[in-house]
Amino acid sequence: MLTGASGFLGSYIKNELVNRNYDVLTLGRKHADIIADLDHTVPTIIKSIEYVVHAAGKAHMVPKTEAEAKMFFDTNIQGTKNLLKSLEHHPLKAFVFISSVAVYGAASGVLIEESAPLAATDPYGKSKIDAEILIKEFCNKKQIHCSILRLPLIAGKNPPGNLGAMIKAIKKGWYMEIGNANNKKSVVMASDVAALIPNLFEHSGCFNLSDGVNPTFGEIAKAITTHLGKKNTKRIPQFIAVAMAKCGDLLGKKAPINSHKLKKIQSELTFSDALAKSKLAWKPRS
């Protein structure tokens, strides 16, 4: 059974599993074999399930109100609780959970490993931590394989989130690099993640995944502009960016950029995939 099959990464996972001749049962709010809102419902699953890939979840939004923050907990925690309840009596062999490097709560860092503290304080990161705990407890109780994938920026066709916004901005000629854009970020291909999923049915553990290259912002922008046949992106000098950020500090939350956001944009943040390479024969593409 696959949750989140209609999502960006979920669609890649579904295609991979079908191509590997798995009998895939999808569960979701719409366009699924089992229609259910996990936030509020414990679905009835009649068909016998052996493997679960839980890719559904709330992401790609910065909450501005308490109600919006609550949505992360409704979907990522309560939704996971309801899913686990529905699977209580199934002959499960393995459970794979799509988590995020957001659980580390790191604004910067170099090749962060899975042993790093889970220090997220934002609603998204905290909800993913709690979901991981629920799933580990469930799998331990049922004595089944449990794999948790902590993913960074995911690349593929029509990606959501920050990468999708970056591509749209480059297409329209709006994207501007700040300073020398040489800060590195971890990225992983959606198709590579999907190809790894069946291998996880015989493994347990938490694994960071990345492409192993960890390109700079400038390299990512260059790759996109080349692919789209666009001119090189414009650049904002560092001193101007700093001045804009300081103005943003004075303007408050509505400002498009402030000193905190600028620091985050320019910080290096990479994650080690050494464990996945040694335990799972993970062989990512750049």
Strand content: 15-25%
How many strands appear in the DSSP assignment? 13
Unreliable residue stretches: none
Helix/strand-derived category reads: alpha/beta
Strand order of the largest sheet: 3-2-1-4-5-7-11
Mean pLDDT: 92
Total number of helices: 9
From the N-terminal CA to the C-terminal CA, the straight-line distance is: 30 Å
Described by the principal axes of the CA atoms, the overall outline is globular
Radius of gyration over all CA atoms, rounded:
20 Å
Largest sheet descriptor:
7 strands, parallel
The level of helicity is 25-40%
Query: What order do the SSEs take from the amino end to the carboxyl end, as H and E?
Result: EHEEEHEEHEEHEEHEHEHHEH
Summarize the structure.
This protein has 286 residues and is α/β, with parallel strands linked by helices. The protein contains nine helices and 13 strands. The strands form four sheets. The chain has a seven-stranded parallel sheet, with helices on both faces.
Task: Give a written overview of the molecule.
With 286 residues, the chain is α/β, with parallel strands linked by helices. The chain has helices at residues 8-19, 66-86, 123-142, 161-172, 190-196, 217-228, 238-251, 259-266, 274-280, and strands at residues 2-3, 26-28, 34-35, 51-54, 94-100, 109-112, 145-151, 153-155, 176-178, 187-189, 205-208, 234-236, 269-271. The strands form four sheets. The protein has a seven-stranded parallel beta sheet, with helices on both faces. The protein has a two-stranded parallel sheet with strand order 6-13. The protein has a two-stranded parallel sheet with strand order 8-10. Strand 4, helix 2 (66-86) and strand 5 (94-100) form a beta-alpha-beta unit. It is globular, with a radius of gyration of 20 Å.
